[in-house]
Design goal:
530 residues, alpha/beta, TIM Barrel, Double Stranded RNA Binding Domain, 3 domains, eight-stranded parallel beta barrel, three-stranded antiparallel beta sheet, 39% helix, 21% strand, binds acetyl coenzyme *A, binds pyruvic acid, transferase, 2-isopropylmalate_synth_dimer, Citramalate synthase, branched-chain amino acid biosynthesis
C-alpha cells in the first residue's frame, strides 16, 4: 500500500511573494479550480488580512465549488496583548469562510525576541490562544512553525515546545518551515526524525529554495516521516522560491511509493505548469525538470541515435507520463539520426545511411558554421530538408526589391520598399511604406502575395531578433536574424544570415511566408491573380 501524502499548494499565497508573480482574484479562482481538478488536497488562497484582492478571492471561492481540495486562508498568530476574538487578523481568517486555515508562529528565539519583541512564554501563549480560537470556530488548523529548523538548531527544546503548544491547543497538523531555505537535506532528516518522536499529530514540511534544495529537503522530510508537503507550481515563491511541486510530485509518485494525486492526473502536470505560467504572464523555464520544453529535448547526435533505438538510453521516464513530449533539436551537434528523425516527423522517409542524409548533415553544419541557428528556426530547417530532397515547390520567386530610407533636417524619416515577385508566370510589382525597412519590405511582400494567397493576412510576426555574429567587424559584421511568426496560436521560427541586415531579414521573412503557405495550402496550387 502506497503512503499517502497531503499536497498543500501555496502558489496563490507564498507563490505571489515571489518577484514578478501577481494574480487578480479572478485569476486565483481559475488557478484554484485547475489545482482542484488536478487532485491537490489543500489550496492556500492568500492572506485575507493582507489586501482587498485576497479578501475578494475568498468571497469568490465561497461561491465556487471544489470537488476535492480544501481552500485554506492564511494568517499569523494574534499579537501579544490582544485577545484572539479582538484580533483583526484572526477575525478575518474566520470570516474567510474556508474549511481550513493556516497560521504561522515563531519557533526561533531570535524572532521572538527581536521581531516580535516579546518573551518566550508570551510567544507560546499567542500560539496556544490563536490555535484554540480557530478550533473553536470549527476550522481545520494547519500550524506553520516559521523558521523551525533555524530555531531548532539554536534551541531544540524551545522549538519543539512551540509545536507542542499548537498540538495541545488542537492543531490538526504542524508544519516545519525552512523559512530562510538554508538547511541541508541531512539536517532536515535528522531534525524531522527527532520531532516525530515528540509530536503526536501529522507533521508537514515547507521548504524554500535558497540553496536549490527546496525539492530535496521536502523529499528528505517525507522519507523521514512527514505526511504533508507544502510547495508551489513552478517553484514560484519568496526570494528563490519554494519546493517545486512539478518536480516533487513525480519524484514521490513515479520514483517512490508515495501517493500524492490520483495517478490518472499525472499526465496533466505539464499543462498545469504552463497554464499557471501563462496566467502569471511569466515565460516558462525551458530547463525546468519534468515539465520544461527542454526536459526531453535531445540535441547531441549520440543521444538521438540511442534514443531512436531505445528511449530509456537518455530519458529517465517516458515524457508522456507527465504530459510532456520528446523533441529532437538540429544543430551542428547533430548526426544522421537527428536528420532522419526530423524528416520522419515531416513525413519524408529518409534512410539514415542514405547520401541525402549525409548531404543534409554536411549542409547543416556548414550553415551553422556561417551563423545560422536551426535549433530556434525549425521552419527554416524543414524548408532546407524539403529543398534538398526535391519535395519543395516555391510559392514565389523574387525578381528584385529596392528600399529607400529618407531622413530630412527636421528629423522625420520615410521608408519605402518596392518589390517585384513572380508567382507562376505572373509578375507582381508592389510598393509600401513602413516604419522601417523590414516593416516596409514585409508590407510590400504581403501586398504582392495577397493577390494569390489571401490567407497570408492571417499570419503575423511575433518576434524579431538580430544578433551580431562577429563583433570585431563592428557595423560591417555578419548578422543573424531570427523571426518568430504566428497564426491562430501556432508559431514557427525562421532564420537568415548575411552581412546585410536587410538581406538576412529577407531570408527569414520569406522562409516564414513560404512555411506558412506550405502548411496552409499543402495540396493547393496558387490561384490566378484577381
Ligand atoms: C514566512 C512568511 O512567508 S510569513 C508571510 C509573509 N507574507 C507577507 O508579509 C505578505 C502579506 N503581508 C501584509 O500584507 C502586511 O505585512 C500585513 C498586513 C500582514 C501587516 O502589515 P503591517 O501591520 O503594516 O505590519 P508590517 O508588515 O510592517 O510588520 C509586520 C508586523 O507583524 C508582526 N508579526 C510578524 N509575525 C507575526 C506573528 N507570527 N504573529 C503576530 N505578529 C507577527 C511583526 O512583528 C510586525 O509587527 P510591528 O509592526 O509591531 O513591528
Ligand atoms: C510560513 C512560510 O511561508 C514560511 O515559513 O516560509
Amino acid at each position: 500500500m502506497n503512503t499517502s501524502i497531503n499536497i498543500f499548494d501555496t502558489t496563490l499565497r507564498d507563490g505571489t511573494q515571489g518577484e514578478k508573480v501577481a494574480f487578480s482574484a479572478e485569476d486565483k479562482l481559475r488557478i484554484a479550480q485547475q489545482l482542484d481538478a488536478f487532485g491537490i488536497d489543500y489550496i492556500e488562497g492568500g492572506w485575507p488580512g493582507s489586501n482587498p484582492r485576497d479578501m475578494e478571492f475568498f468571497e469568490l471561492a465561497a461561491e465556487a465549488s471544489f470537488d476535492h481540495a480544501r481552500i485554506v486562508a492564511f494568517g499569523s498568530t494574534c499579537r501579544a496583548g490582544n485577545e484572539p476574538n479582538e484580533d483583526r487578523n484572526l477575525q478575518l481568517l474566520v470570516e474567510a469562510e474556508t474549511p481550513a486555515v493556516s497560521i504561522f508562529g515563531k519557533s526561533w528565539l531570535l524572532h521572538v525576541e527581536k521581531a516580535l519583541q516579546i518573551t518566550a512564554e508570551q510567544n507560546l501563549g499567542i500560539i496556544r490562544d490563536s490555535v484554540r480560537f480557530l478550533k473553536n470556530h470549527n476550522k481545520e488548523v494547519i500550524y506553520d512553525a516559521e523558521h523551525f529548523f533555524d530555531g531548532y538548531k539554536e534551541d531544540p527544546d524551545y522549538a519543539v515546545a512551540t509545536l507542542k503548544a499548537a498540538e495541545e491547543a488542537g492543531a490538526d497538523t504542524v508544519v516545519l518551515c525552512d523559512t530562510n531555505g538554508g538547511t541541508l537535506p541531512g539536517q532536515v532528516s535528522e531534525i524531522v526524525s527527532e520531532v516525530l518522536k515528540q509530536v503526536n499529530i501529522p507533521v508537514g514540511i515547507h521548504a524554500h529554495n535558497d540553496c536549490e534544495l527546496g525539492v530535496a529537503n521536502a523529499m528528505a522530510a517525507v522519507q523521514s516521516g512527514c505526511t504533508h508537503v507544502q510547495g508551489t507550481i513552478n517553484g514560484y515563491g519568496e526570494r528563490c522560491g519554494n519546493t517545486n511541486l512539478c518536480s516533487l510530485i513525480p519524484n514521490l509518485q513515479i520514483k517512490q511509493d508515495y501517493q500524492c494525486i490520483p495517478d490518472q492526473h499525472l499526465e496533466e502536470l505539464t499543462a498545469l505548469s504552463r497554464f499557471i505560467s501563462e496566467v502569471a504572464n511569466l515565460t516558462p523555464d525551458i530547463r525546468q525538470p519534468y515539465v520544461g520544453r527542454s526536459a526531453f529535448a535531445h540535441k547531441g547526435g549520440i543521444h538521438v541515435s540511442a534514443v531512436m533505438k531505445n528511449e530509456e538510453t537518455y530519458e529517465h521516464i517516458q515524457p508522456g507520463r507527465i504530459g510532456n513530449s520528446r523533441r529532437v533539436l538540429v544543430s551542428d551537434l547533430s548526426g544522421r539520426s537527428n536528420i532522419s528523425y526530423k524528416a520522419e516527423q515531416l513525413g519524408i522517409e529518409l534512410d539514415k545511411y542514405s547520401d541525402n542524409v549525409s548531404e543534409i548533415v554536411r549542409e547543416l553544419k556548414d550553415l551553422e558554421n556561417k551563423g545560422y541557428q536551426f535549433e530556434a528556426a525549425e521552419a527554416s530547417f524543414e524548408l532546407l530538408v524539403k529543398k534538398m530532397t526535391g519535395v519543395w515547390e516555391e510559392f514565389f520567386e523574387l525578381e528584385g526589391f529596392r528600399i529607400i530610407v529618407e531622413k530630412n533636417v527636421s528629423g522625420s524619416s520615410r521608408t519605402e520598399a518596392t518589390l517585384r515577385i513572380k508567382v507562376n508566370d505572373q509578375v507582381e510589382h508592389c510598393a509600401a511604406e513602413g516604419n522601417g525597412p523590414v516593416h516596409a519590405l514585409d508590407k510590400a511582400l504581403r501586398k504582392a502575395l495577397r493577390k494569390f494567397y489571401p490567407e497570408i493576412s492571417n499570419m503575423h510576426l511575433n518576434d524579431y531578433k538580430v544578433r551580431v555574429l562577429n563583433e570585431k567587424d563592428g557595423t560591417g559584421a555578419d548578422v543573424r536574424v531570427l523571426i518568430d511568426s504566428a497564426e491562430h496560436g501556432q508559431s514557427w521560427g525562421t532564420v537568415g544570415v548575411s552581412h546585410n541586415i536587410i538581406d538576412a531579414s529577407w531570408q527569414a521573412l520569406t522562409d516564414s511566408f513560404s512555411y506558412f503557405l506550405a502548411q496552409e495550402q499543402k495540396n493547393l496550387q496558387p490561384k490566378e491573380a484577381i
